[in-house]
Write a structure and sequence with these properties.
Elements lengths: L1 E4 L2 E5 L26 E2 L4 H7 L8 E5 L10 E4 L26 E2 L3 E5 L11 E8 L6 E2 L7 E9 L12 E6 L8 E3 L2 E4 L1 E4 L13
Antiparallel strand pairs: 1-3, 1-5, 2-4, 6-9, 7-8, 8-10, 10-11, 11-14, 12-13
Length: 210
């Protein structure tokens, strides 16, 4: 989905899935009219299934202006679906459209976290389920079985200002079925129950971005 918008946007069906719902404290300038590209988000099939409801589904877009004196509220939205066969029921996408890159396989371990549909807050930690795929062959696919960790965690955002960066750091604890601390080895690291998903988004050199 691509969007050209100014100031503020929220999507609901029936819950927000682009959670930008914490006020319009700054102007957001649309870039498409100036030769730029609209902002985009990939909605994968699992996310789409979790948002669908029985019966009619409503796709809603909500715009907020930055202030009552602002006169440039605008928004254009484009919803693009991939079609797996040769049928052509819809028009071609715009010339600026760039097909998303979908990662299903990696030579790095894959960590999958299911929060049961809940947003991850600053605090407190919320219950979630985590699986890690780390095959001896060095090739990991999202469809492979969890083989390094397959169990419960609790998770929250990490950091003060850094938690609002585009690349969010997280802190999580491995726990048992009763929510008690569970010391485990992860990816060859020593047993522990406190873990961090570090995201040095502001490290422009990328030296520590591993």
């Amino acid at each position: 989905m691509e969007m050209r918008w100014q100031d503020h946007i929220t999507y609901r069906n029936p819950v927000p899935f682009v959670p930008f719902d914490f006020g319009t404290y700054y102007d957001h300038e649309a870039s498409l009219y100036n030769g730029g590209f609209p902002e985009s988000i990939i909605i994968d099939s699992l996310s789409l299934d979790s948002m669908r409801v029985d019966g009619p589904n409503v796709f809603g877009v909500q715009l907020h202006n930055v202030s009552i004196s602002s006169s440039d509220l605008s928004g254009n939205f484009y919803l693009t679906f991939g079609i797996s066969d040769d049928s052509q029921f819809y028009s071609e996408p715009p010339s600026w459209f760039q097909a998303p890159v979908i990662y299903e396989q990696s030579h790095l371990p894959l960590i999958m976290i299911d929060t049961y549909g809940a947003d991850i807050p600053d605090e407190p930690r919320i219950p979630a389920y985590m699986g890690i795929i780390s095959n001896e062959s060095g090739t990991n696919n999202v469809k492979d079985n969890f083989n390094d960790y397959d169990g419960h965690i609790t998770i929250e955002r990490r950091g003060n200002s850094s938690q609002w960066n585009d690349k969010t750091p997280y802190r999580f604890e491995t726990v048992d079925e009763n929510g008690e601390n569970n010391n485990v080895e992860l990816l060859g690291m020593p047993e522990e129950n406190d873990w961090v998903l570090y995201a040095p988004w502001q490290d422009k050199t990328m030296i520590r971005n591993v």
